[in-house]
């Protein structure tokens, strides 16, 4: 059930990231053409592109986390027995969980502090900008807790291979 939910969220985020990237390319290219060709431009595209980039980065980090595509070093892990790999897996997930909780707490505080602050050009609440970290952190906590649960119940052996890429 949780795996299905995570998979669907990742598919939705992947589509959204493609749309963000396409919108950013169109806005930045259009602004370059307008500035150099017609000595004008849209100031809103600069700010919107920056916001889309931040959202795309956090959503991409979540998708990478769920697919175990983040950077890792397997030199030691490959030489450990199954028990050692399980221990390292648990420790790494607990450390990542701690960091994600910090991201949620910090992002939430920034959202509250900036709730009434308006951005310079869009005049939208800058809390939207910080909501990307809160969403990433909260969803990443769910994924990490799910992976720890799979480890505890003995269903995480497929995640203990040397890398997610090799196991596919």
From TrEMBL:
Protein name: TRAP transporter small permease protein
Pfam family, one: DctQ
Sequence ranges assigned to domain Tripartite ATP-independent periplasmic transporters DctQ component in this UniProt record: 24-153
Annotated membrane topology: Multi-pass membrane protein
GO cellular component, one term: plasma membrane
Keywords tagged on the record: Cell inner membrane, Cell membrane, Membrane, Transmembrane, Transmembrane helix, Transport
Domain of life from the UniProt record: Bacteria
Protein family membership: Belongs to the TRAP transporter small permease family.
BP GO terms, sorted: C4-dicarboxylate transport
Subunit architecture: The complex comprises the extracytoplasmic solute receptor protein and the two transmembrane proteins.
Organism: Lampropedia puyangensis
Record has tRNA-binding as a keyword: no
């Amino acid at each position: 059930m949780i795996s299905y939910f995570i998979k669907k969220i990742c598919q939705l985020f992947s589509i959204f990231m493609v749309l963000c990237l396409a919108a950013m390319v169109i806005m930045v290219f259009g602004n370059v053409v307008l500035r150099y060709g017609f000595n004008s431009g849209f100031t809103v595209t600069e700010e919107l592109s920056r916001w889309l980039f931040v959202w795309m980065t956090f959503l991409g980090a979540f998708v990478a986390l769920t697919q175990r595509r983040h950077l890792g070093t397997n030199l030691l892990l490959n030489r450990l027995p199954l028990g050692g790999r399980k221990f390292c897996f648990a420790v790494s997930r607990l450390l990542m969980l701690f960091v994600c909780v910090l991201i949620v707490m910090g992002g939430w505080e920034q959202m509250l502090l900036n709730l009434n602050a308006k951005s310079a050009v869009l005049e939208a609440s800058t809390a939207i900008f910080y909501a990307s970290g809160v969403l990433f952190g909260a969803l990443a906590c769910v994924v990490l807790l799910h992976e720890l649960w799979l480890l505890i119940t003995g269903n995480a052996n497929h995640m203990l291979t040397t890398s997610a890429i090799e196991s596919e």
